[in-house]
Structures are given as structure tokens and as C-alpha cells.
Amino acid sequence: MATKILMEALSPTMEEGRLVEWKKQEGDTVAAGDVLAEVETDKAVMDLVARAAGTLLKQVIPAGTTVPVTQLVGVIGKPGEDIAAIIGGNGQARASAPAAPAAPAAPAAKRVEPKLAGDADVVPAPPASAVTESSSKSIPGGLTKGPETAAPLATTAAEPGARIKASPLARRIASERGLDLGSIHGSGPEGRIIIRDLEGVAAQASGPASGGGPAGGQVPAALSGFTDVPLTQIRKTIAKRLAASIGPIPTFYLTTEVDMERVWEARSALNEASAAGGSKAKVSFNDIVIKATATALRQHPACNAWWQDDRIRYWNEIHVSMAVAVEDGLITPVIRNTDRKTLRQISAESQDMAARARERRLRPEEYTGGTFSVSNLGMFDIDQFTAVINPPEAGILAVGSIVEKPVIVNGAVVSRRRMRLTMSCDHRVIDGATGAAFLRTLKMLLENPLAMVW
Amino acid sequence: MASFDLIVLGGGPAGYVCAIRAAQLGLSTAVVEREKLGGVCVNIGCIPTKALLQSAYVANLLAHDAKDLGIETGPVKTDYGVAMRRSRKVAEQNSKGVEFLMKKHKITVIKGEGTLLPGRKVKVGNDVHEAKKAVVIATGSRVKGIPQIGLEINKTTVISSDEALFLEKAPATMAVIGAGAVGCEFADVFNAFGTKVTLIEALPRILPLEDAESSDALAKAFRKRKIDIFAGAKVTKADVGKDRVVLTLEAGGKTETIEVEKVLMAAGRAVNTENMGFKEAGVQLTDRGFVRVKPETLETTAAGVYCIGDVAGPPMLAHKGSREGVNVAELVAGQHPHPIRYDNVPSVTYCHPEVASIGLTEDQCKERKLDYQVGRFPFSANGRARTSGETDGFVKIIRDKKYGEILGAHIVGSHASEIIHELVVARENEYTVEEVDLAIHAHPTLSEAIAEAALDSMGKVIHI
Q1: Which one of A153, A305, A362, B410 has the minimum C-beta count within 10 Å?
Q2: pTM
Q3: A-chain residue closest to B434, CA distance
């Protein structure tokens, strides 16, 4: 029996996808795991992979079409198979609301189509994949159903509102770590989510309901090192009153001006040394600011935190998000464990991720889960600006351009390279003095770059 | 040359179960067995020993507890020969049952010694059989002596379980060397049949793989029944005579000499890997002598040759082998079976009181520096146990403090082997102690002790 190819949710926030290009043509033989098409999500261009082996019988939608997640885009089956019912039934199927959770349609499917009421395809869809090859006739009490799947790759139907199958322990760990079970693929019986499935999965804290920021902020489960601190009454009152006054995220701004002479010299020397050594590696000012930010965060954990509605999550690990402008918006790739990386590593990673961000080739786990953001408009000759907080993070640093200007040093007017930093703080998490102390450390680090490695 | 989809070498609990599952999935299947179907488990292992343990249970019940229950029988007379013949009958019936299952599933049983040939072929006698899809090695294990200390099994004074299961009468005195499940079960049986039993274990406690509290509880029960226990003891010398053996032991810095009619060797088993063409067919062994397999698929180093059961590595338990058999059959049939959770294989010793466990011991939790909380509930506070007059033992549940995961569970007591499965199911499905408590347990049952131990691990125990 034929297997439907559905538009899959390739990122946690994806609601619809544009089929950019079919990689397989009608009549092509496909194996499970083959790339069928490229799909542009809200964040990136990703591969739509075959969940079953067979022949691509039909491209239901042409390249360039945007369709909602779970919409039928193609059909895999045996040559000559009658698929009229599948294609015809599609429209009605869409119209009905997500119904009861249903048997997984494809054992290896990342996202499984729920069995919809009114779906033309009445016979339980057999899990069509390599498994299909095994004989079904000898199954004890064999109904007309296909071979038993019990496929370790069978996964969950994560239709919004649908019941998510997960073990109690997996649920508990997921809730503790802020993982969204709806975006996790279960490998237990009938696609049940078990502990094994949580390993290495990007944590997805829902954060403030307003969400807003890229994917609402995710952190890999492997980096679960954080401390949740329940809100005290005074914090609750502060949060309530400030939010009522200014908006869902009561933000305030702190600006400081940093002398960048030493960073300037250090960067020039580093890049010269690198070039002399035959390397093309170059460090940017932004890399240095990111490194300094991570180092300062280590000393000021109060700024490395998430607002979680009923508590504040203080992260033990530091993941700096870096805002990158892309053609029609911006995205924030995350440099993991920023404070533990060398400048060279940060530089290489930021270049790679910025390049891939512009090509829209970042994976969801690469642009989610930051604990603090840095946004730099220095290259656009912006002296100073205020950046919008990327929730659930509590702070973002807006970096202006480096400007040569007259300043007074030891009573004499001299020309110095100066840079303005403005930190936006979520007042529910960071108070004025807390933010100021962080910024002072950051300024000290940039003015004494050796202190970063002290 | 006959041709099958799948040929299983060995008709024990791993092999015959593998064959049945393969046949269910439409594969033409053959089993090669040199002795009786059912293997050690059915013929000279699990099944007959449990039959003897039932005799032992009744003997103890009548001798010690019946009068209290209002039943007087006069002096209790035991006859090991009768019990033995009953156990043989049970074993034979079970073996016939396996034969019937083979017929029912149209599985060809080839009698004889199988030799593996390269290219998925198996030679039995002069016939060569070909397996189109897979050969599955399930050749099992056998008893072994300790020749290094002069304790070679001679089948008269130095015996193994193989001989103990066929004795006509219980010896007056017996030393059991090795206090794992087998050693403890035989110590229990012969003690009930009037033998003066000395149980000797090299490691510091009996049932060394179980939780220390379980070992201690069993040792206490054994001592009460006058079984002598030497743990942390080394047999330094064995003087094997025609009708007696003198053993010299070193235990706790002291040297002891004991004279016994028979020595029962129960210190581990050797796997059957020799003289079956494994090496020539490309099947390699591990340093410890087991067949080397890929953990996920149980495929050996020879393509299309799989290995299951004792010979594939520990734990050497029938139920572990059976599950491996099912998984391999499904893999070969192109299915994707769920991976086996080797950390969730229950372990059971059927002596009185029974000892059962799943998961980690408390010592292992300590070694792994886990943050845990122990919950305990003694059967002396359990209504059902009190009605039965079987109040020895306890349920112990080790709970992960943060998530409530059941890290390990240990039960000593009557029917521990049965009630442990609530916790096996719980662990397999990743239930926490809270789900165990939420499930209403019938009253009065032994299983209530499990719910209470779960509660105790959360500081909420009710009946203590």
C-alpha cells in the first residue's frame, strides 16, 4: 500500500513550509532516508526525507508551493498502484480537526499523520518502510493489518492538542529541563517517548507566552546545568508591577562607553600573526565582544538567566546568541559554552554559522537555546542603539561602532577609539545594579583584554 | 542438502523461542539439538530444580509450621528419590511440550551435533544444511568444576547440578561450593531433605550479585535452618576420597577442615563454544570466552551468524536468552524489534525465602554516586504475609531523589519471584515510584508491600 509524504514540522515552530525543489521525480525509486525535496521552513532550508521505500508515484504539490504542516505533498508506493483515493481524500482530511491519536502511519516518520476522521484512507495505513517487506500473512491472529511495526524509530503524533505518548519518567525529566515533548520523537512502543529519546534533544523552554524570539529559546538537554529559583514575593510584585507599566517584558537600558584601543591593538597583532603564519583565520571585534561577554557572564550569573513565569532559571552554562542579519529578517545562532571556547574557536564558529545563517542552512538546535544575546550594528555605523530582548533570555547587548573621538585622559585631550555598549535588561530578572555590575566587568575586560585569559 | 531460512544451533530456551518466533514470521526454520529439546533449563536446570524446591517447601512447612496452623502430621519423613522422580516427570513433560511447539510451528528438529560451516551452513552427521538468511548460535553452557584446587567433577563425590538432580537419596552431608542462585537453591533443597549442608562462597557474602540486605536476610534464614555458611572463604585443599571429601577452607583468617559425603560444584558455568567450527566459520570469541556479538543486533563476527543466550554473554539467564531469541528472529525477518534493556533483566533465586531483584543494588548506586532514597517495607508488617505465617523478608525500592526513577528494587520473601514483576513492568515503562503508589493494590496481598516501599521511599509509608 502507498505511503503518504507529508509536510513535516522540520523546526519546532514551523507551521507551514515552502517546497523549494523536488529532489526525486515521479517514477524515481526511493529508499527510506533518501532526500525527497528541499523545504524552506520559517528559519532554514531543510531536507524532507523519505519515510518509506518504493517509487515516488506522485508529486502532489509543485515546487514553490507553500503548504501547512501535515499536508499531503506526495505519495510513495508500488508502480501502477491506485492512489486516487489518497490524493482525492486529502482535501477533506485537512478540513477535519486533529482527531484521536492514531496509529503511526510510517514507522520511521519524524512526524506522523494522525488518523483523521473522514480520511479517505480507511484501512489502517500500513507502516510502509523496509519493514513492509516482511510477510504479514503469518502473524498470529493476522488481521488485514500490515506487519507489526514495533519499529524503534516509530514516533509520536505531535499534532497540537493530540495526546503525546511519553513515559512518566520522560515527562518528569522533560518538564524539569524545559523540553517540549511535542517536538520530540518517541522511540518506544507506538512512538512513546522514553528517556532515551531525551538524550541530546534540544531543550525547548516555552518561556513567556509571548514567545517572540527565535523558537522561544532552546537549550540542549545535555546542557541541563541550571538552577531554578522560585520567585520570592518581592520578585513577584516587582515582576507584576513593572510588566503592567511597560509591557510583557519590562525592559530598561544601560549604556556605557568602552575604550577599544587595546582591543584594537590586540586584534591587529593577532590577525597579523595569523597571516604571517599562513593562516586565513581572522578575528573580528564582534568575536572579541562575544568572548568578553561570556567571560563577564561567568562572573555575573545573575545575568545568564531565563524568565520562566513562575521562577527564574539561572544557567550554569553560558551560550551566547549572536544576532545575524539575513535577507528578510534576523536569526540568532548560538555559540555553545562560549566561555569555555578560545577566541579562535569562537571566531571560526561565528563565521561558519553566520555564513550558513545567510544560506538558511542552520539546524534548529543551532539557533535556539541561548542564554544571553549579542547584537552588533557597528558595521552599519550605528553609534548606539537598544536591542529587543530575545525571550526567555533576560539580557541582550547592543554593540555600536568603534569611533575615534577626543577624550580627556590624564587631563589632556587625546584621540581614542571608543565603542558604546547598551544592555537591555528584563527587570523581572535583572535589577539596575546587577546589570550595571555586569556591564562594568565587561568594560574592564574589553579595556584590559588580557584579563579575559587571566 | 536441505535448505532453510534460519537454522538455530541449540534447542534451549533461547534457541527454541527464537525458532518459534521465526516460524511465526514466516521463515522456514530448523533447530539442531544433540540432546533433549528445552536444553539445560527444561531438563537439568530451571524446571526440575523448581520441582525439587516445591518438595523442600512442603517438607519445611510440615516440619516447622504445620502444627502452628492446626495440622499435625507426626514426624515428617522425606524421600529425595521420590521428589527426584517427580521432578524428572515434570521436566520430561516440559520437554515434550517444546517438541509439540516445534511441530505446531512446523519447525524441523534435527537431532545430532551441529557444526558451523562457513557461508551459513550447518553440518549434522553427514548432512549439510544451508541457511538462506541466518544461522543462530544458541549452544548454551554447562557445569564446570575447579580442577585448580583438585575439585574436578567426578560424578560420585564431587558432583554438579547435573548429578544432584538424579540422586536417589539425599547425602548425610554436603558442601555446596558457590553461593549464587544455583548453590543457594540446592543448599535449600538438600537441607530440607535432611542433609547437613555447608555453603561456601569465595566472595564476602552469599548471593554476591544481589543487594547486601538481600544476602544478609537469606543468610539469616539459612542459618536459622542450620545451614552452615562460609562466605569470603577460599578452598585451599580438597582431599577427594571414594566416599568422602575433606575440604580445607580459609575464612576470616581461620583455617577450617570439613568432611562431607559429597561436594556440589555450583561456582559458575562454562559456555559451549568448542568443536563446533566457530573459529573456521569466522565466529570470534571475547576475552572471557563468550561469542563476540554486536550488542544491538547480536550478530557475530561472521555475516549472517547470530548468537543468543548464555553463550552470547551474561547474564546467563533463560529469560534473557529467550528475549534475545525473539529479537534475533524479528531482526532476521526484517522487523525492528525494540532493543533489549539488559539493565532490566530480573534476577530470581527460588530458595526459601525467595530473593528477587531488578536494576541496581544500593552499593552500585553508591559507586555511581547517584542521589537516591531507599524505601523499605518488611513483610512482618504485611497482612497477607502474616496470614500465611511467612513474614521473613522485605521489599526495598531505591528511588532516584530528583525524578523518582526506580533505580533498583529488591525483594526477599515468599513469592518474591512473582511479585517482582510489578517493578519490572514499572521500570520497563519508566514509571516512577509515584505511579506504583497510584495503582491501587488489592488488600490483603504481598504486593501491598511494594506499594508501601514505594511510599516509604517518598517518606509517606502508612503501615509502619
Answers
A1: A153
A2: 0.59
A3: A168
